[in-house]
Amino acid sequence: MTVNPTRTALAPTALVHEHITDAIKAPDLLRLSDNVVLARFETLKVYAALGAVRTLLERGVVRPGQTLLDSSSGIYALALAMACHRYGLGCHIVASTTVDAAMRAQLEVLGATVDQMPPSEDLRLDQERRVRRVRQLLTEQPGMHWMRQYHDAVHYTGYREFADLVDRALPDAPLVVVGAVGTGSSTGGLVRPLRRRGRSVRLRGIQPFGSVTFGSEDFSDPDAIIAGIGSSIPFDNVRHDLYDTLHWLDFRHAMAGAVGLLREHAVFAGLSTGAAHLVAGWEAARHPDHMHLVIGADTGHRYTERVFARHHEALDPRTLKPHQITALADLAPPWSVMEWKRRRFDVRRETVPAQAVASPPASAATPTPTSSSAQESPQAPAPLAAPTKEDPAS
Fold first, then answer.
1. DSSP secondary structure string for all residues of 140-183
2. Centroid of chain to Cα 306
3. How far apart are the first and last CA of the chain?
4. Residue 358 contacts by C-beta under 8 Å, 6 or more apart in sequence?
């Protein structure tokens, strides 16, 4: 990307922060092209952890000095440890086998107790082990509070600040948010407040192959190290009917996006950011009248050896494009895209009959971690069936 030397940004207002979480929670906004902006975080989930911990303390659910417990594959662990450090709480992390030595050292110095799972090439087994360990700890030490980042909607609250920032920075054009689905809280926590304000916001979600979240569990990606953007177990915080489009990418395509982002824009970011960068480039070319906001969840340090040291192996992003499908039965690696159309999806059942799920009247609806308001999906289509040989249509 060639930068116009005559185009300068206003000097930022200097602030002295009281805690590191205030300094790093908000992203830097970087223009990648005329209609693509990157929200680059040092660690995205500081918003989620701070908002959740602050809300739980205000509600009296968590007491000063109590120990907070959760499972994590990386950046949420660090964010929660920082939030506990800020508010004087104990922290216990059941860590994925993918958590590296640098991350573990930071957690331990911050005062967190770290239970790390043994080496495993099976990410589903790693996740199941973590859940079992969490339940064991709760039995042994019932005074702990389980944060349940995958299921407790309190993690949506912190992203309202992010929505305020985006609304001010990109106030006019129709907006397309492109980001990894993960727990659902970051993308959902951003688009819900914006849509409630009347903004036109489309949401493009990204998944790895092998995730149950949007029906790709029958596939495997032997090189996958981006477990945090998908899941082998259902996440209640994922509100499927917020998403307009879904992209499924394999490791090599995410790597191409990450290496391309560094090469083209000097931005060193993680694999989920790389995947979002690749998707946003394809989407932006098809929708030049929309502003595309790429969610860059973290830096690239965790992926130095597996991705950036192998940069000569990276595919050329300019040569890549997705397989466009209309039904989950047609899903295929290495990159598929489908118009999701804000449908509901029950990952705990093999299929969801089209007539089985109807939105309750607005006056009777009770918010749950898996529901969204009628305002956000005014014409939501019938629920989407999971792929079966008998009924391939969606």
1. H-TTSEE--TTT-GGGGTTHHHHHHHHHHHS-SS-EEEEEE-TT
2. 21
3. 40
4. none
How many C-alpha atoms does 230 have within 13 Å on its Cβ side? 31
Q: What is the identity of the amino acid at 166?
A: V
Instruction: Please state the pTM of the whole predicted model.
Output: 0.84
CA proximity to 48, closest of 22, 91, 20, 80: 80
Distance CA 207, CA 240 (A): 12
Would you call the peptide bond into 119 cis, given omega within 30 degrees of 0 as the criterion?
no
Coil, helix or strand for 251?
Answer: helix
User: What are the tens digits of pLDDT across the range 5-28?
Assistant: 445 555 567 789 999 999 999 999
pLDDT at 382 over 70: no
Residue 218 is classified by DSSP as: T
What sections of 60-172 are H helices per DSSP?
75-87, 101-109, 123-140, 159-169
Measured distance CA(331)–CA(342) in Å, rounded: 18
Kindly tell me if the per-residue pLDDT of 389 is higher than 60. Answer: no
Helices (H), 88-141: 101-109, 123-140
Show the tokens assigned to 243: 């998403």
Which residue, chain included where needed, has tokens 């060193």? 268
